[in-house]
Every structure is written in C-alpha cells, then in structure tokens.
Amino acid sequence: LHNADYESQQHQLEQPPSKKQCLLPPPTTTPAVGVVIPPPPSSTTTTGVIPPPPPPPPPLPTTSTAASAAVTVSQQPAVHNSVIPPQASVSSAPLPPMPLPPQGVPAPTPATVPLTTTTATLLPPEEFVATLSSTTISLSIRIPHEPNWNLEPQVIALSYDVNSTVKKMKEELHKNYITDMPVNKMQLKDAERGCFLKDGLTFAKANIGEGGLLDLVPKVRGGRK
Q1: In the 8-state DSSP scheme, what is residue 151?
Q2: Cα separation of 187 and 219, whole Å?
Q3: b/e per residue, 189-222, with b = 16+ CB within 10 A?
Q4: pLDDT tens figures, 18-75
Q5: Burial environment of residue 187 by CB neighbours within 10 A (0 to 12, 13 to 18, 19 or more)
Q6: How far apart are CA 110 and CA 113, in angstroms?
Q7: Strand residue runs (E) in the chain
Q8: Which of 98, 128, 135, 155 lies at a CB distance of 3.0 to 4.6 Å from 123, suitable for a disulfide?
C-alpha cells in the first residue's frame, strides 16, 4: 500500500504542468530611475503638415434681401395671352322728326331782339377817353339810297368831340346835309357792333373813337327798318 502511494506521487511529479498552471501574468516592466520614456508617435509628427480648417458655411439670406426679392418678383407684370374683344361700333340713331303744327294754326316765328347798345363789354367813358390821343375824333356816316327822303348814297365825314351826343350829330346832319329828313326819322347804327345808338348816348360811352363808322337808317312806321 505504501509503495502504491509512493508510485502515484512519483507519477504526478513526472508529468508536465498543465497549461493553467503555466499561464503566468506578464512581468511588469518597471522603468529604471532616471530614464525618460518618449511619447507615442502622433499623426502630426508623422506627416508634418497641419490640414487647413474647413471653409465657413454660406451666410443665410436676411429678411430685407428676401423681401426685396419678393417685391421684385411681384413687380414683374404678368403676361396673359388674353385677346381683347373689338369694341362695338356705336351707331347714332336718327333724331325723331319735329311735330308739325295743326292745320289752320300758323307756326310760331322766332322772337326778334331789337339792336341796342350794350355796356357789358364796354369801357367806362373816362377809361375810354384816356386811350385816345385826342378828344376830337373823325367819324364817317354812310347815307343810303332812300327816294322817299331824297337821299343819295354817299359818305359824310365829320369831326366831333368824343363827349358829344348822338342827337347833336343828327341835328347837324339835318341842318347841313339831309334837310328833307327830320331828326325824329333818323337812326344811327354802329357799323362795327351792329347796334343802334340812342339819342342821349355819347360817343365816349359807346366806345366809338377815331375812325368810327356809322350807318344812317331811316325810321319807318311800325318799327325800325
């Protein structure tokens, strides 16, 4: 029995150790005192070139730039392929005929307005006299052909004071030139304006100045001729 135990122990001693027993922790290297261990090499020391920084991102559009762009786009006129229809021609309708008056009733005649002097466009006598170079003016009176008063066509030239009245001229015509026509049958008309001159009117008030032309118109029964 003792021999068997002894052989068994001997057999165990002769066998090699197992792997579990052979795995020992790696020895720790303890640096010697005074020895400097260099740092591990980096990518900078191997290449030797520093890469440039990345470019900055583009700036974002501001509110004013975006608004101006929107306004520019909105201001562009829109193009429409629309066709403008032709305008309809407006035809003028004929006016209805005027109604005829009933038979036996005479048609109304337009009212005749007697020719008289108007002061709407005339200067005051003082202002008109101030426009003349002299208060003595030369006037021409045209006499018509009138057999009833023995009148022959002629032109009579007279000089008068601008402040003289029309009646004074009629009296001189009756006295020196047309003696067969009484003063109350004479009418003097301004040839330029076509209006009759009243007896009490002065040439200054009628604005008749140098070189004025008057027409003698005989007065007939029933009104002016």
Answers
A1: B
A2: 6
A3: bbeebeebbebebbbbbbbbbeebebbbbbeeee
A4: 544 445 555 555 555 555 555 555 544 444 557 677 777 776 655 555 445 444 544 5
A5: buried
A6: 9
A7: 136-143, 154-161, 186-190, 195-196, 212-220, 223-224
A8: 128
